[in-house]
Amino acid sequence: MKKHVCLLLSLLLLFSAVSPAYAAGTDTLTLASYGATEYRIVTAENAIPAERTAAETLARYLREITGASFPVVTDSEAPAEKEIAVGVTNRDAFSPTDRTNMDDDAVRIFTAGRRLYLTGGAARGALYAVYTFLEDWLGCRWFTHDLTLTPQTDVLTLEPVDYFYEPCFKLRQTYWMFSAMYADYCAAHKLHGVMAYLPEELGGGRYEMAVNSVHTMGQIVPQSLFGAHPEYFGADASGTRSPNLQPCLRNEEVFRRAVAYAMDYFSQYNAVLSVSQNDGMDFCQCDACKAFNAAHGGTDSAALLDFVNRVAAEVKKTYPEAKIETLAYQNSQKPPAGLTVADNVVIRLCAMNTCTLHALDDPACPPNAAFNADFSGWAALTDRLYIWDYSTNFQYYYALYPNITALQGRYRYFRDRNVIAVFDHGCGEVAVPGELHELRTYLVLKLLWDPDTDIQRHIREFCAAYYGAAAEDVIEFIGYFEANAGGWNARAVKQCHNSCQDGGISLLNNTALSSKDVKTLDAIAARAQARPLSADEAHRLEGLLLSWRFFKNATFAGEFSWYSGFTDPEAETERLVADMRAYGWTCLSENWGLYLHEEDPDARMMPTFWYTDESDLAADVRRDMKIRVFFSRLLRAVCAPLRILKERLAA
Fold first, then answer.
1. pLDDT at 207
2. Given the DSSP bridges, would you call strands 115-120 and 107-112 parallel, antiparallel or unpaired?
3. Given the DSSP bridges, would you call strands 171-175 and 115-120 parallel, antiparallel or unpaired?
4. Rounded to an integer, what distance in angstroms lies between the CA atom of residue 336 and that of residue 378?
5. Which of 217, 523, 617, 641 has the CA that lies 20 to 30 A from 374?
6. CATH number (domain holding residue 45)
7. Which domain, by its residues, includes 89?
8. What is the pLDDT of residue 648?
9. Across 601-628, average pLDDT
């Protein structure tokens, strides 16, 4: 059941104070008064499905806000003075909208006389105009799929408006579970989908720019062919071929298979085709591949780009409008030298190894400096750059991940460098939210639409609705955690540079929280828990604080410290795992590499090794475990009298 947060007129006026209205004429429109309206909603008689949805959505929300019923009619009826025209209608004759060069997602909202026009680009403009009007002018919010805000008022007036917006990212997709699984939620946030299939009545998925899948080399050259055709597959440095390597991109039969694969695809689909490397596999090091790469910058992207360019050239002969995408990812992230990107090829640069503790263009951050250089190299080769960004920790889905305050800077970086499409890869495998998953999803969707949006306002509004009276505490907690997570790591004797793959030792070496920081955060968390909260708000807060405990467990901090006579990290780990199970968490890392088993974990280990047999641990990991357990038990024994005294005094 949806939960609607209904606000009175005072809050509606608060929202209207920040709405992006611009002067257009002098008439103030009274859309509804005390449950009655003189307005009707008009769509074209041959309106596309998305325009019909837009009109129905507008009518439904206007009724919830004002109590008035707004009839929906087609433009076959005679014009009236007071109308809300949605989409392309014959009412454009009274105030024409030039859509000649307008993007399909562009939004146009304006008043002319006593009419209100909610229109824009041909495909989704009307739908997005309605959602923009509901959100930015009327104060509606869709925080999650089942936590929405719908203001209420007796009298709804509208000052003259003249507004136009065209999003910089022409394709906006994300791979998050939770609310992003719901098509209507995606439509409200002007998302083109991925986790939620978007039918035509919700605008469709902009398939002329989107791909159906990536890592497609395994479909072009299945591993099952290795026995009969080992020459199709990559060779390692010794010349040994393996089905666990990328295909050999200088093999002509592999090329012919790729062309056939592409031609079959384009005979069925009007979408971009990805011809891209398999995930997690090294490239071929045969003499031909090595020589080609060496001649073009010494990067594996050289053979890959040449291969994709050749496939694209063959496809263009039959399908001149078709586009082929490939990934600049892992070993192919570095751009080649002496090659160009064909005009029907799209490069999707993957920001996997970037650091969220520093700006993407920070020259003092080695991983970001490398990415920035690679970005510049690819941008010099093409103006059709897509981005695959990552906004969760794939090794520990439920450990706190310090990127909330960094998100806006990343999206502005992409916008300022003319990226045309962004795919945000989040936590797409777990069904129970925790950590800051729902907030992060909400913010990502806002930034995909407008990188200059007021992100602090979105954080405040979301937290107020999601955490209730604990909202300010949560905001303070996020700010303090992210401000102090980076810096100098004494254990590793280095500056922290995190990534979306920080698990095990990597996370331990890339957090700079001091024991003072941990105590401060614990105090903020305790203050939040003491607030008067509803059952739902308390449950959501519990998910965040469980993630904080998980983070502390993974970094041996706070009550999980091994070098204190006053902590019992093994017992605390057992309690943590029991609470995680009770909350509903199971999958803890990408591809279920780490999940909660039925048996208890090894509480002596960090989460990465909870279910690893001691005999299978690397020697240094096993050694470190034995040292910390020895000191923990020794210190607990030495401090036992003090611990007992402290407990008695506390009682």
1. 83
2. antiparallel
3. unpaired
4. 8
5. 217
6. 3.30.379.10
7. 3-166
8. 85
9. 96
CB 269 within 8 A of CB 212: yes
Do both 227 and 287 map to the same domain? yes
Question: What is the spatial distance between Cα 31 and Cα 157, in angstroms, rounded to a whole number?
Answer: 6
* CA pair distance 551, 522, nearest whole angstrom: 12
Task: Give pTM, 2 decimals.
Answer: 0.94
HEC string for 467-530: HHHHHHHHHHHHHHHHHHCCCEECCCCEECCCCCCCCCHHHHCCCCCCHHHHHHHHHHHHHHHC
Mean pLDDT of the chain: 94
Q: How many domains does the chain have?
A: 2
Task: Using pLDDT thresholds of 50, 70 and 90, give the confidence band for residue 18.
Answer: very low
Mean pLDDT calculated for residue range 606-628: 96
Mean pLDDT of 614-634: 96
What tokens does 343 get?
Answer: 């005009």
Mean pLDDT within 118-130: 97
Residue 450's closest CA among 239, 136, 208? 136
Instruction: Report, in angstroms and rounded to the nearest whole number, the Rg of the chain calculated over CA atoms.
Output: 28
Q: Which residue has the higher pLDDT, 130 or 20?
A: 130
The Cα–Cα gap between 173 and 139 comes to 25
- Which 3-state string (H, E, C) describes 346-394? EEEEECCCCCCCCCCCCCCCHHHHHHHHHHHHHHCCCCCEEEEEECCCC
Nearby residues of 612 by Cβ (< 8 Å), 6 or more positions away: 602, 605
Q: Identify whether 611 is part of a domain.
A: no
Burial of 511: CB neighbours in 10 Å, binned 0-12, 13-18, 19+: buried
Tokens standing for residue 443: 């913010």
Q: Look up residue 392 and give its amino acid.
A: T
Q: How far apart are CA 289 and CA 277, in angstroms?
A: 15
Q: What is the dihedral of CA 9, 15, 17, 21, to 10 degrees?
A: -110
Q: Are 602 and 618 in contact (CB under 8 A)?
A: no
Average pLDDT over residues 71-76: 98
